[in-house]
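User
New here, help please:
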Amino acid sequence: MGNQFAGVIFSAGQPSDLLQRLAKLSNWKLSPSSKGISRQFTFPGFASAWRFMSIVADEAKSKRHHPSWHNLYSEVTIEWTTHKPEGLSIKDVEMAEFCDRTADMIGLKN
């Protein structure tokens, strides 16, 4: 596992492959609480950042798992963590993977 995730605190009852999936999230970092992951995405402009947020919001609603996030024009910072049971869970990693795929589809600023 990459050093960026050293000391992560997992939710109880997580699948055995969670560590390997987490390690593949190269652009994500461990949140200060060690119970979540965060990433900043930079898009070409506001419209593409908003589109990203809209797509992620729809997926979050369907999965019943919502992020903490911030938007400033073309930048979106997003954090995933699980509150019950507290810690990083497969839901967080799945949503981070979804965010990465969605950002790739929309296109990030070079």
About this structure: The longest strand covers residues 75-83.
